[in-house]
Amino acid sequence: MDDQKFRCKWCLGFPEYIAYHDEEWGKPVWDDTIHFEFLILESAQAGLSWATILKKREGYRDAFADFDYKQVAEFPEGYVQELLQNPGIIRNELKIRAAINNAKRFMEVQQEFGSFSKYIWGFVGGKPIQNKLKIGDPSPATSPESDKLAKDMKKRGFKFLGSTTLYSHMQATGLFNDHLVECFRYKEVQQF
């Protein structure tokens, strides 16, 4: 990590956060498994900090079958009870059950659209939206695109995925490039 590089201020604080910013956040994602991972993590974040979720990411990876949505969709009740005792994740029953439900809905979307990626990228016209945020600009919490996506996903039966959560997902997976234009990653993520 080059400490001389200018970064978005939200990521400064601990090494995992900086690494997440430098290597992942905002990089366009077309892989369904990565989209599913972020949907689980983003829905788990509701009411918590992203730093808390990043610190538990490996716990989620272990508990949620490496984010294999096919396996998660089949988690039996007994495993739900085990997850409620697992200190490596957020032990919120509604969020755990939402992840299982969302795995099922995720596969329904795949069947209809060919992939979840194709579905979600359709909300931004198939290419990243470049917001061109500068130092001092307010960071958006939602967008018309995330509003439409949230409404559609709710209609499809997804849980714990409102517009704010989905906007975060869209930022993380590169549907929006919300790196500050001064940030070294702004131009880098445009290359993907």
From TrEMBL:
It comes from the Bacteria. This is DNA-3-methyladenine glycosylase I.
